[in-house]
Amino acid sequence: MRMAASDAHVYLPTRGAVRGAAFAFFGFGALCVTGGMLWGIAMAATGDHAAAGAHAHLNLVGWVTMGLFGLYYALTPPAAASRLAWVHFAFAASGVILLVPGIFMAVTGRSEGLAIAGSFVTLASMLLFLFVLARHGFGRGD
Ligand code: HEM
Predict the structure, then answer these.
(1) Burial class (CB in 10 A: 0-12, 13-18, 19+), 124
(2) Which of 6, 57, 69, 86 stands the most exposed, by the fewest C-beta atoms within 10 Å?
(3) Whole-angstrom distance, CA of residue 44 vs CA of residue 22
(4) What's the predicted TM-score (pTM) here?
(5) Residue 68 domain-assigned (yes or no)
(6) How many domains does the chain have?
């Protein structure tokens, strides 16, 4: 079905550039995957794949999961405007920052403590997200 030009706004999640929490999640994710790709290239070039698990989590938790959170907040402005969005960002970003070096240390035979701490902070960020989702739903709400 063809839409009139005046109906175009129906398909836009927000008007204007999205900053704030959505931008923070997405920007953090893009930084993670840039680092993750460089790390992957280094693994491929050296043939040393020992850090593959840490690389995978930097990309999948750091980029894919953070990026999905960013898209959610871009599509759901009432959630993005809440203070909880920033609490969620703090937990999610801290989780990646603890988890990735933690997995690296664990898979290279050192302490597992950091990986355990990062796992629980990352889990807490997902529980916070479930709470945000239950409170604000999905979408603009108009
Ligand atoms: C420039 C881009 C990338 C390069 C050069 C690269 C390179 C690599 C290398 C060399 C491995 C180790 C393979 C092995 O030991 O069998 C690996 C594993 C992996 N990578 Fe990447 N990667 C890239 C991007 C990504 C992205 C964007 C993701 C996810 C969004 C990703 C997810 C994974 C996963 C899940 C594994 C398997 C980890 C495991 O078996 O423990 N990679 N990658």
Answers:
(1) middle
(2) 6
(3) 33
(4) 0.87
(5) yes
(6) 1
How does pLDDT run across 90-100, given as a tens digit for each residue?
A: 999 999 999 99
User: What is the per-residue pLDDT across 123-139, written as a single tens digit (0 to 9) for each?
Assistant: 999 999 999 999 999 99
Is the Cβ–Cβ distance between 39 and 51 less than 8 Å? yes
Closest atom, ligand 1, to C-alpha of 44: 10
pLDDT in tens, 69-115: 999 999 999 999 999 999 999 999 999 999 999 999 999 989 999 99
Give me the domain span that covers residue 110. Answer: 19-136
Angular region, 3: left φ>0, alpha ψ -120 to 50, beta rest: beta
**Whose CA is closest to atom 32 on ligand 1?**
56
C-alpha 94, offset from chain centre: 11
